[in-house]
Design goal:
This protein has 548 residues and is mostly helical. Helix content is 65%, strand content 4%. It has 17 helices and five strands. It has a five-stranded parallel β-sheet with strand order 2-1-3-4-5, with helices on both faces. Helix 8 links the parallel strand 4 and strand 5. Helix 3 packs across helix 4 and helix 15 packs parallel to helix 17. The chain is elongated and about 160 Å long.
């Protein structure tokens, strides 16, 4: 038997909120006798209404059993949601009279009906869909039950809270713990009802819960039954008209083939993404790896240049005796630089992993971890770290060459000349002329020694500086190799996991495509039977509407 789809629409706000004197073509064509109307529709018609309009059949049974609904005490906050709920409930027939919202049990018990004769025997308590009920609501429930008041509980504004179902379950547990497990909580949303009335969507009206709440209120409320027969006939006519409209909408939907076209479009979309996003994921991965390689290589070059500049400044300030221990200092600086670079690599790979994960999307529900297969809070497994690069063997001793001998000769010559210049005044004295020769030689030897030591210090410093340059070139090559190794390992891990996820998605896509194709075949096969069933139900409703 066909069922009414949740997306069925109907004309305007006509299903249950028609005014009492509104003309309805199907209803106005012929009215059954008053006695027959008061007895209600036969079982065959009720079965059709129950199939297509469950809330309508509940309303019919409630009105037939209790007559016209009277005033109901409303206990809840006096806010916009409550006002909208009262407005939307007022559109249903029979109309339920709700008092102004009150907030405590004493006021609720003392509230009288609009005629001012007696307190209302029914109370509607509105619960918050965002928080569990508290001790004050439980006290109100116990107070009203002790006074014999019939209580209905409704959870309003469920559209604003995604976890309203868990809150409702917790409220029911609290009520059961207080020995009031017979009370149920009706979830409602007046805003959804208003949207359904504006869009003419009967399915959305059902999901709003307003129809179920109205039927419960009509079943619980008591009132004068002077106009019970006429009101029952009016409610029956409106419920039958709404039910017939829903069946007609289903026939229109079946004949239009909109659902079949939608399923075919859904199948085409799934087939277009049948590779599970593998091509997109791999392209994104390659681009991000290339970008990471460029960034890390640039950072290595900058760090090596900064270290080279620092070493040149250190060498310029060192004495000749301190140059022998400089290779150890350079090794220590290289180790620190490697540690800082490892942190930069880890951070860059973590950013790369997060970017790939966010770009490609998480794993499928129920298939375990997401894209990277890592647990929450873990982006990549810890990679293996090699020792810091070695700066190489210590520099070889500097060998003296022709330049050193030439410096000695030039230094001695310059020293003798300087000594001769200094002792030239002594040559004016004949007795001291012979004594000036040893002094000249001593001064020449001293100046020559100083020049040789200075030239040796400069040469040693230049020798160490050249060794540092060669060592840093070697260190840079090793660090670049370190980066390339880390990127290759990361690419291997990520590519393998992308392929695994893509394969999982391909299997899931094939399964969903098979389900859609099965639904298409079943829909095409069942369409003639559904149309025949709908036409049979329309005929049953038309016979009852036209009877009398």
């Amino acid at each position: 038997m066909p069922t009414r789809p949740s997306t069925a629409s109907h004309g305007g706000d006509r299903p249950l909120d028609l005014p009492a004197d509104a003309p309805t073509s199907a209803v106005a064509s012929a009215q059954p006798a008053a006695a027959e109307r008061s007895a209600g529709p036969p079982a065959e018609v009720e079965a059709v209404v129950a199939r297509w309009n469950p809330q309508g059949i509940a309303l019919l049974r409630a009105v037939r059993g209790t007559g016209v609904a009277g005033a109901v005490t409303l206990i809840g906050p006096a806010d916009a949601n409550t006002a909208l709920l009262r407005t939307e409930l007022a559109r249903f027939e029979p109309r339920i009279e709700l008092t102004d919202p009150v907030s405590d049990a004493s006021t609720a018990v003392e509230t009288t009906s609009p005629s001012g004769t007696a307190p209302s025997p029914v109370a509607l308590i509105l619960l918050d869909a965002g928080t569990t009920l508290g001790a004050e609501i439980l006290r109100i429930v116990h107070r009203l039950r002790s006074d014999g008041t019939r209580i209905l509980l409704a959870m309003n504004a469920i559209h604003a809270y995604q976890d309203w179902r868990s809150v409702r379950a917790r409220d029911l547990e609290l009520l059961a713990a207080q020995s009031v497990a017979d009370l149920d909580i009706v979830p409602v949303s007046a805003r959804l009802a208003a949207a359904a009335r504006t869009a003419g969507d009967a399915g959305l009206l059902d999901r709003s819960g307003l129809g179920a709440l109205h039927a419960a209120l009509a079943a619980a409320a008591t009132g004068a039954a002077a106009e019970g027969g006429d009101r029952l006939a009016a409610v029956t006519a409106r419920v039958l008209a709404d039910t017939r409209q829903r069946v007609v909408e289903q026939v229109t939907a079946l004949q239009s083939g909109a659902e079949t076209a939608r399923l075919r479009e859904e199948r085409a979309i799934m087939l277009a993404g049948r590779d599970g996003g593998r091509a997109t994921a791999m392209s994104t991965l390659r681009g991000q790896l290339h970008l990471a390689r460029v960034d890390l290589m640039t950072e290595v070059g900058a760090r090596i240049r900064a270290l080279h500049t620092a070493t040149r400044a250190d060498l310029d300030r060192m004495r000749r005796s301190e140059l022998g221990g400089y290779p150890e200092r350079l090794q220590h600086a290289t180790t620190e630089l490697t540690g800082a670079l490892d942190l930069a690599i880890d951070q860059r790979l973590a950013e790369l992993t997060a970017h790939i994960d966010s770009s490609v999307g998480p794993g499928l529900p129920g298939t375990g971890p997401g894209l990277l297969g890592a647990a929450p809070g873990q982006t990549m497994p810890s990679r293996r770290r090699d020792p810091a690069p070695r700066v190489g063997p210590d520099p070889d001793p500097r060998h003296r060459g022709v330049e050193d001998h030439l410096v000695i000769a030039l230094g001695a010559s310059a020293g003798v000349g300087l000594g001769r210049l200094l002792v030239s005044p002594l040559s004016l004295v004949p007795a001291l002329d012979f004594a000036s020769v040893p002094v000249t030689l001593l001064l020449g030897a001293g100046v020559a020694g100083w020049v040789v030591r200075a030239r040796g210090q400069l040469a040693d410093r230049a020798h160490v500086r050249q060794w540092v340059s060669d060592a840093l070139i070697n260190v840079k090559a090793q660090l670049e190799q370190r980066i390339a190794t880390a990127l290759v390992e990361t690419e291997t891990v990520l590519a393998d996991r992308v392929v695994q996820l893509s394969a999982t998605r391909m299997v899931e896509t094939d399964r969903r495509v098979a389900e859609v194709e099965a639904r298409l075949r079943r829909m095409v096969a069942e369409q003639p039977g559904q149309l025949a069933a709908c036409e049979r139900d329309i005929a049953i409703l038309d016979r009852w509407i036209a009877a009398g």
